[in-house]
Predict the 3D structure of the following.
Amino acid sequence: MPDNKKFIENLSGTGKCIGVLTSGGDAQGMNAAVRAVVRMGIYVGAKVYFIHEGYQGMVDGGDNIKEASWESVSSMLQVGGTVIGSARCKDFRTHEGRLRAALNLVQRGITNLCVIGGDGSLTGANLFREEWSGLLDELVQSGEISEEASQIHSALHIVGMVGSIDNDFCGTDMTIGTDSALHRIIEVVDAIMTTAQSHQRTFVLEVMGRHCGYLALVSALACGADWVLIPEMPPKDGWEEQMCNKLSENRADKKRLNIIIVAEGAIDQSNKPITTELIKDLVVRCLGFDTRVTILGHVQRGGTPSAFDRILASRMGVEAVLALLEASPGTPACVVSLCGNQAVRLPLMECVQMTQEVQKAMDEKRFEDAVRLRGRSFENNLNTYKLLSHRKIDSELPHSSFNVAVLNVGAPAAGMNAAVRSAVRVGITEGHTMFAVSDGFEGFCKGQIKEIKWGDVGGWTGQGGSLLGTKRTLPAKHIDKIAEQMRIHNINALLVIGGFEAYLGLMELQAARSKHAEFCVPMVMVPATVSNNIPGSDLSIGADTALNAITDTCDRIKQSASGTKRRVFIIETMGGYCGYLATVGALAAGADAAYIYEEPFDIRDLQSNVEHLTEKMKTSIQRGLVLRNENCSVNYTTDFIYQLYSEEGKGVFDCRKNVLGHMQQGGSPSPFDRNFGTKISAKAMQWISKKLKECYREGHVFANTEDSACLLGMRRRALVFQPVIQLKDETDFVHRIPKEQWWLRLRPLMKILAKYKTSYDVSDSGQLEHIIRLRTKDISAI
């Protein structure tokens, strides 16, 4: 093992006690975080205690503080809210209350706390840590603990995880519960849209967010709302007239419904509240539209956590335990968080101070500063929404005289339509004439190309599949005909949205440039495939929706198994040779094993999994879940594994198998895929505009450099344009996967949480970053 590597085997929790509590408002995914802390803590040899009812339980002590076992967190993963309870606690705000809490912790030897809550809960934890030695001195003086106990427990270590549906904590891309809350909002909006269309109604929806407009902004982006009101960016004076004009323009454009989304803390320029009733009265008075108000309220906090929240919370829970194991008395309290798809640790008080700065900026009416302080992701969401929602009149548009074509290639993926809508609208805003190609390269060679206007893509964000039509056909054998169509329609740039075939297709078009000058134009590809197997991008449009479909099905299957007991399910997932869906699906569903092509396995591994499940059946958790990627092995097929498990498990457990199939490609896109598709596509169109200006010479476009045929992918923390030719070396073309895949680092995590001893490289962990440095570095984050 190289010296610079750090492995979990070398970290020991023996003799340490960790307390885990959830505090403040509940959020979906908190249970997944609790489960991960408990299991990771037990795995490294520590004792872990539940502290029930948040800080109130810590102050009251007694049965509120109980040791947790491996089985006690079973079946928690798919449950919303927090099963260990949460309460807002006045007692903990008093010195006397904190003194009692300190005594209760010392009596049980707990000097490591993992706090899951909002900024108030985390600030309270930090104050507790700062007062700790003083509290112990008081307890020694009053004779409640010995001097020796005070020495042994002299330092309190604190790690926070942010559980808040509002996503109102600075320094973290996403807080636990935000994605699930967006799922609830989008489910409601999708349902409301059908009834609003029937009656030509206007709906005003109020979503949570007293001080933060994230939920309102992102749900408006995800459903293509006509207007959004958020506390960070109050509308300019005269907004009432502007909004009514926009609504009536949309109706005149044959749009049968209007959706207005309002954050509960929405304000105007004078800091006066803007309520849903005020907006309803305004629309009725000025336009006479049939208008209804829906206040979503606590629906947003409820329901089962999304796949994203389960994975986020599980990764953060494990990271929190690592942070506690590595903490020394001088280590500041930290928050574990995700930035892009990387786990990071940030000083807790830096994050809290920055979060408070936002509120201060809003109170002082420095609204642009408030948006900037919220972080790059929030700012980009706002800019993208502005870009897509306000349709400029023709006289306001720059006229570019460029023609840009958009097409879908490969298998359908949820979120493709959101990407097409975004590209068309941004293209029109930039002054281009947009063309839509039906049925991929096959439709291209047949001339199935027509101009597409702003109104043609209305309502596309929530539609699954591909409305343009998509085919797997590659361009090489039709290259002459495609070149001819490029010439006939005078296409000056291409945006290809699709999977591995789109990537291969772009390479073929680039290779054809030497024979056909028509392909010497800017070309960019946006990855969209449920398999998430595109080199140059950590994530693809459609993968999150597929993951949620897998997770939902696994939840139902687990529920059926809990009734029958002693049953193991073998579930086959899609993905080609890429094991992303099987691995990450297994982590989100709490599976016992996941077989994938990238990690070869043999009969001994299968035997060891059967033995592991046999042992599990002796505990109170009498069910098993095994995921298998469709191409993980030629010979160890789903049927073979099912038969082997059935034979070996005879008398101990019985088996069932389930092939999920095309349900993973269908369904309405998840909020994440809608937004990812919208933002990545908008960025691709802006790149096309820039390239067209650069490549315009003497009346025509000519682009022949490597960097004029790019793939736009998400890499770690940023969206990056990469010439496709440079991605060749990173690609395994036989198995249609990237040679290196970031998510393979999550496999040990899945095994640890399923009680397997494994090697886990934790070298990535442990760098405490500073929030200011983080902000400047992430200039091009989503």
